[in-house]
Amino acid sequence: MVSGMTRPQGWGGSRLMGLAWGLLVVVGLWLGSIAQAQAVSLPPGLPLAYLPPGNAITDGRALLRNSLPIDSPETRKLQTTLEGLSEWLRSKRWGPVAKDIDKVERLLSRGQDAILAAVPEGKRAAARSYLEDIQVQLLPMREAVEARDREAVWLRRSAMLDDVGRLEELMVTDFPFTVPEDYANLPQLKGRATVEFKTNKGTLRAVVDGYSAPVTAGNFVDLVQRGFYDGLEFIRAEDNYVLQTGDPAGPEDGFIDPKTKTYRRVPLEILVKGEAVPIYGSTLEDLGRYLEDPVLPFSAFGTLGMARPNDDANGGSSQFFFFLFEPELTPAGLNLLDGRYTVFGYVVENKEVLEQLTQGDRIENARVIAGADHLVQPS
Questions:
Q1: Is there a contact between 118 and 72 (Cβ–Cβ < 8 Å)?
Q2: What is the CA radius of gyration of the chain?
Q3: What pLDDT digit, counting tens, does each position of 112-153 carry?
Q4: What's this model's pTM, rounded to 2 decimal places?
Q5: What is the DSSP-derived secondary structure letter of residue 294?
Q6: Rounded Cα gap, residues 16 and 14, in angstroms
Q7: Which domains are present in the chain?
């Protein structure tokens, strides 16, 4: 299963230390390239991520918006402008905040026809309502800026981005690719689903993304609907690393299909940015592509990753983990899990519950609360 890695002792949050740590990871990546059989089992003390140029996206909702298979430049401009407010809000630069709000208003005014044209005709009424809702929120947003009320601006920004995300989901028409015939015997998620986990420490929600990992996501949603995870304990918990579950009672490490009486094997599934179809069965490192970016990266706290044996890229089944990497404390970006393990979603609500869970805690109940109709069972 997913194996451990520790960070350097005495790590602090300073920019200088971040740069130094980034240099150390170049060595870590090199060592990782010659330790393929060990997956992430690198020598203790090697860091988890290197510091790439630019700012990595560390919000699961933003990553899900970006991964939608749509083509609407005007909508993407609206999205990135609203997302960009976070930088100004953190530094309390109210002038740039006001300018970007003006830009949002111009985009809504001038680009509305182009935005609606990217939505199928039967869904345009709903799309128009989302645009109108964003427009309505501009006035209270301006009032919050004038009052220097950062919390109110954050809340308005979040609500507007939720509308943008719903609008973008309306733009998706057909499923963007065909899964290889080799995996036709496995459930597939042809879209997205929202899963609610009720644990003994609280409830959280995650969005599972079939657009980027249909086989992994389909397997997971199928197991949730079977009640497979109900009552299962977390078998591994490491601070700032992973929280893992999905190991059933008995000698088996994964799900035994009651129809075939065999272990259900789920392949490694990585969709790389710029490509139309995921890579199956091989890590990016094995292919010499370990510096390429997956569409769904391990850059957000609460990333859902599929566990597997270190020596078998196609040996996943039921065990999965929540990634607990904290981007506020460590350099965020490409890390040694990207391209080695499948990401199939992100926790989007109540992520703080993950900080309270530890080994021995349990999932009391997991259920699909939206998107169950996107699950396609093998014929």
A1: yes
A2: 21
A3: 999 999 999 999 999 999 999 999 999 999 999 999 999 999
A4: 0.85
A5: B
A6: 5
A7: 70-171 (1.20.120.290), 181-376 (2.40.100.10)
